[in-house]
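Support request, priority: normal
Reporter: lab tech (M.K.)
Component: structure prediction queue

Hi team, I submitted a job for Protein lplB from Paenibacillus oryzisoli yesterday, and the status page still shows it as pending. I've pasted the exact input below so you can check whether something in the sequence is tripping the parser. The sequence length should be 313 residues. Please let me know if I need to resubmit or if it's stuck on your end.
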Amino acid sequence: MHARRAGGLAGSSGQKLRQLRMDRWLYLMLVPGILYFVVFKYLPMWGVFLAFKDYQPFLGFWGSKWVGLKHFERFFTDPSFWHLLRNTFSIASYNLIFYFPLPILLALMLNELKNELFKRLAQTLIYVPHFFSWVVISGLSYILLTTEGGIVNQLIQAAGGEKIAFLLSKDWFRTIITSQIIWKETGWGTILFLAALSGVDPSLYEAARMDGAGRWRQLMHITLPAIRSTIVILLILRLGHFFELGFEQIYLMLNAMNREVGETFDTYIYTNGIQQGLFSYTTAVGLFNSFIGLILVVTANTIAKRFGEEGVY
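Reply from support: The job had stalled in the queue. We restarted it manually and it finished. Here are the results:
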């Protein structure tokens, strides 16, 4: 009996080795991705210990004094904490509410196009803004919105109105930031949804048409259910980066007049960590930011599973 079990294990191991040998090139293709995550994602995680130390460059990582939760206490009792939390949450909510649904809607509209040439041309045009840097985007925003010859203000004046200082206004800051993201990323965000839509069985639409279903009923009962799991997974992943608004975009649009509503965790980490050298303190701020993302992902994933979706894990 033991001999039979040992023989079975040996046979199973041999079969796995043969399978690995057959698929060796596929596994080899995984190596760059694994190295990327190890070098840029997992190894830097050791840096979170800076949040619990009073890091001094001349003492080094291991020589710096352990201070426990001192930096977290300082951050949570700082008057700027609630101010930063409010600003970051407001801009993140704008992005989630106004940006997230748009790639879905655009993908649905592109999926309805029957002319393949026009469809490919439209896809190419809406993908282009994704490849512009935020420096270019902020420059275009300045050209369009400045009071000194900006196109938008010229149109307002031509319509009989008065110039609006969009770039200096607290009221317009979040709208401008959200509009930039929508223009830059909506087209690129359609890729995964279009891929999901391409997997829908055309016979389902034919059967629905034979039953008398119009375009709206086909959309509601075939198309949307087909991409529902993709929407849920991308929403969960999006929540994981809820507070990560991107330093560059916000920083380029900040000025003395709109800083009160524009200062976020990302810009706060830069000004205090890089410019002032408070490495341990800003590591604690960044760790708090990541912890919030983790909580949101776990919560959203749990809710999704309770509603019968797969989730991300």
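The radius of gyration is 26 Å. The first helix runs from residue 2 to 22. Let us know if anything else looks off. Ticket resolved.
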